[in-house]
Design brief:
Number of helices of chain A: 4
Keywords (chain B): ER-Golgi transport, Transport
Helix content of chain B: 25-40%
Number of domains of chain B: 1
CATH superfamily of chain A: Trafficking protein particle complex subunit 3
GO cellular component, one term (chain B): perinuclear region of cytoplasm
Order of helices and strands of chain A: HHHEEHEE
CATH topology of chain A: Muramoyl-pentapeptide Carboxypeptidase, domain 2
Protein name (chain B): Trafficking protein particle complex subunit 2-like protein
Number of strands of chain B: 5
Distance between the termini of chain A: 43 Å
Helix content of chain A: 40-55%
Largest interface: A-B, 17 and 22 residues
Strand order of the largest sheet of chain A: 1-2-4-3
Radius of gyration of chain B: 15 Å
Strand content of chain B: 15-25%
Shape of chain B: globular
Strand order of the largest sheet of chain B: 2-1-5-4-3
Structural class of chain B: alpha+beta
Structural class of chain A: alpha+beta
CATH class of chain A: Alpha Beta
Oligomer: heterodimer
GO biological process, one term (chain B): endoplasmic reticulum to Golgi vesicle-mediated transport
Order of helices and strands of chain B: EEHEEEHH
Largest sheet of chain A: 4 strands, antiparallel
Subcellular location (chain B): Cytoplasm, Perinuclear region
CATH architecture of chain B: 2-Layer Sandwich
């Protein structure tokens, strides 16, 4: 199926474009610049997530509670966006959820060893934004972070902000 | 055929209100505003009852002597309110549901438009076209 590669290539190019833009204005990148790029990627993902969730929940009945929403994200939403379901969902029942995906679609192109572990966060920022945007449109403000220990498996940690 | 159609955001401010121009618009704005209370009541009530499947279509919110008000809420807590003329009794439930479906589809398209910021008033021509198609044709 060619459609998967389309987005993967586009995503890779988005990430490298943003980082090159930031680099060309100054000679080197320090941590603040890196953080700025990551926030930019995350913000893009946020808007995409909002639009996506509007389309995907058009016909589904209302959600009963937070856990219901997280389950929807792990199953239907993840299937539509990343073509697989989340492998493991853990929660402490107090607003923190950890979603573990053992073969994350945007990381499969990397080699499986430790070589590019430090480059991985750049490629996860957009997806974190998508999840945050989706949750925000469903009424849950959250903070989403991602970490990778072994490629291509990654964990997304979602902390729901209680107002 | 609707007399007034409104789209209200999650934070309860209007994203889009359009009514048949020949009549008193303020009256419709007021009606839509008061109908929000009924919508809230329905949304919170259904959650506590069966706890089963919750529908997006809320049905007849309340009838008054001149017109009837119908409501619909999306999963992103955006509310659609349609006001129809009471004298127009030929409108069945199914037709109202299909009007809400069309509104929801059109709204989804607006939401996915990258140039639209969520929370801004809706200015899409396509959305306007759909709404015009549903409003009462005057003169």
């Amino acid at each position: 199926m060619a459609d998967e590669s389309l987005f993967e290539f586009l995503h890779m190019e988005i990430v490298s474009h943003i980082f090159n833009e930031q680099q060309s204005s100054k000679g080197e990148m320090d941590n603040k610049d890196r953080a700025a790029c990551i926030s930019l990627l995350e913000a893009m993902g946020f808007r995409v997530g909002q639009g996506l969730i509007e389309r995907l929940t058009r016909d589904t009945p209302s959600f009963k509670d937070e856990l219901d929403i997280m389950k929807f994200i792990c199953k239907d939403f993840w299937t539509k966006v990343f073509r697989r379901q989340v492998d493991n969902l853990r929660t402490n029942h107090q607003g923190t959820y950890v979603l573990q995906d053992n073969k994350f679609a945007l990381l499969t192109q990397f080699s499986s060893g430790k070589q590019y572990l430090d480059q991985a966060p750049k490629y996860l920022a957009f997806s974190c934004g998508v999840v945050r945007g989706a949750l925000s449109n469903l009424g849950l403000e959250s903070v989403v972070t991602a970490e990778v220990s072994i490629m291509p498996s990654c964990k997304f940690q979602v902390v729901i902000q209680k107002l | 055929m609707a007399v007034c159609i409104a789209v209200i955001a999650k934070e309860n401010y209007p994203l889009y209100i359009r009514s048949v121009p020949s009549q008193n618009e303020l009256k419709f704005h007021y009606t839509v505003h008061t109908s929000l209370d009924v919508v809230e009541e329905k949304v919170s009530a259904v959650g506590k009852s069966i706890g089963d499947q919750r529908e997006l279509y809320l049905g007849l919110l309340y009838p008054t002597e001149d017109y009837k008000v119908y409501g619909y809420v999306t999963n992103s807590k955006v509310k659609f309110v349609i006001v129809v003329d009471s004298s127009n009794t030929s409108l069945r439930d199914n037709e109202i549901r299909s009007m809400f479906r069309k509104l929801h589809n059109s709204f989804t398209d607006v939401m996915c438009n990258p140039f639209y910021n969520p929370g801004d008033p809706i200015q899409s021509k396509a959305f306007n076209g759909i709404v015009s198609g549903m409003m009462v044709q005057t003169g």
